[in-house]
Design brief:
The protein has 13 helices and 20 strands. The chain has 414 residues and is of the alpha+beta class. Among the domains are: 101 residues, Rossmann fold; 64 residues, 2-Layer Sandwich (Dna Ligase, domain 1), CATH 3.30.1490.20; 99 residues, Alpha-Beta Plaits (2-Layer Sandwich). A five-stranded antiparallel sheet has the order 14-13-12-15-16. A hairpin with a 2-residue loop joins strand 18 and strand 19. Helix 3 packs antiparallel against helix 4. It starts with 11 loop residues before the first helix and ends in a 22-residue tail after the last helix.
Length: 414
């Protein structure tokens, strides 16, 4: 296997000081074994810890984590949380995060990626290309769902599933109704998704580590099977990933809050479509197909990034009494569209502007507002609400106009 071209290298003194825990129920599984091998090759102290062997305690002013009765104390954690223990694994990770330990993927990131509907909502909101998808909660929704996603055939899937489980291709409305009825009767949440004919039986898996794709492979289904998963006996082959595919994969992982992710991309007629994002991607197929030392790239990223922890920015900004963040979506306030910031606000309360896939910090006062812009404002919440009310009415606010108002959540437009 070759090392990724941009993989960082470190001295043994750094590696020897780092204590790494891999959360996995299967120490002999290929992916877990490879991560442990690469960690030990770099001089790290590494242990495999079963997520089901932890005890979590909460007391006034403190939280604590015990593993097999011993205090859990590590510098970094790589979670390999299986779908069957998602809720428990996320609870454990959140506990670990409260202790300030670095985790390769956060509990929130894992939870968002595991729910296919929620993941699609986040991806679409961030302008990432995804197949058209409809959420079906009742039999009366089926015909409309089929129409909304472009007609038959359609892909039917459950919102929670892995390795191709709970994913079906159906060619007639009768077949769709029968399948959806059965899934709904068993308590499943059901999605009806656009069928991408030009990508039938194949997709691309891009392995994202940090802010780059370290390896990629094309997966092909065998025989009449349309699902291309490696675990369903699909074949894998190396692929040179086009730049737009790599960019889509990295953005998908980033908006879902994942540092390590397997992003599944469909090869659509107009470019890549993000199908799913896996927070605990298997390494066997992609290492063998690409020849890339993916496990080594993961460990190198951990060693390089452990100094920088995740933080809940919204929670941090609310620590000052009376202060916080309000957002304003311009599409809901057409009177502000086309105007400049200094025409809307006498004293500009904006500290960031979200536009497309960019976030502009401290935008210039002559910035012209657009329909899809989102203003992010920070400061005293009473003054912010008063200022934004004036702006939404098309009246610029003077400093003397700021009044003490009670909370009005409808004006915050979160």
């Amino acid at each position: 296997m070759r090392t990724p071209d941009e993989a960082p290298t470190f001295g043994t003194s750094h590696g020897a000081a780092l204590r790494l825990a891999v959360l996995s129920r299967g120490p002999r599984l290929y992916s877990t074994r490879r991560i442990v091998e690469e960690a030990r090759a770099r001089g790290l102290r590494v242990d495999v810890c079963d997520p089901m062997k932890f005890s979590l305690t909460v007391a006034e002013g403190s939280v604590d984590v015990l593993h097999k009765g011993e205090r859990f104390a590590y510098d970094a954690v790589i979670p390999r949380i299986g779908h069957s223990i998602t809720q428990h694994g996320v609870a454990l990770l959140r506990h670990i995060e409260q202790l300030g330990m670095w985790t390769a993927n956060t509990g929130q990131g894992i939870l968002q990626s595991r729910d296919k509907l929620h993941a699609s909502q986040i991806l679409a909101r961030n302008r990432l290309p995804v197949p058209r998808t409809a959420y079906v909660r009742d039999m009366v929704d089926i015909d409309q769902a089929i129409s909304m996603v472009g007609g038959l055939p359609v892909v039917v899937k459950v919102t929670q599933g892995t390795q191709g489980d709970g994913v079906f291709l159906r060619h007639t409305a009768y077949e769709v109704r029968n399948l959806v009825q059965g899934l709904l009767m068993t308590g499943k949440s059901v999605l009806v998704q656009e069928y991408i004919a030009e990508s039938h039986g194949r997709d691309i898996r891009a392995l994202v580590v940090g802010d780059r794709v370290v390896a990629a492979m094309r997966r092909r289904a065998r025989g009449r099977e349309f699902r291309s998963n490696f675990h369903l006996n699909g074949t894998v082959e190396p692929v040179d990933l086009p730049e737009d595919y790599a960019e889509a994969a990295c953005r998908a992982a980033r908006v879902l809050g994942l540092n390590i992710a397997g992003v599944d991309l469909l090869e659509g007629a107009n470019g890549p479509l993000v199908l799913e994002v896996n927070s605990s991607p298997g390494l066997e197929g992609i290492e063998k197909a690409s020849g890339v030392n993916v496990a080594g790239a993961i460990v190198d990223f951990v060693m390089d990034d452990t100094a920088f922890g995740e933080v809940d920015l919204d929670q941090l900004l609310r620590t000052v009494p009376g202060s916080g963040v309000l957002t304003l979506q311009l599409r809901n306030h057409p009177r502000m569209v086309g105007r400049r910031l200094n025409e809307v606000f006498a004293t500009i309360p904006v500290f960031a502007l979200s536009r497309g896939d960019r976030l502009v910090w401290n935008p210039d006062e002559d910035t012209q507002l657009r329909f899809d812009d989102v203003l992010v404002c920070y400061g005293d919440l009473v003054q912010l609400r008063a200022s934004l009310r004036k702006a939404m009415l098309g009246q610029p606010l003077m400093a003397a106009d700021v009044e003490e108002h009670g909370d009005d959540e409808t004006t915050a437009a979160p």
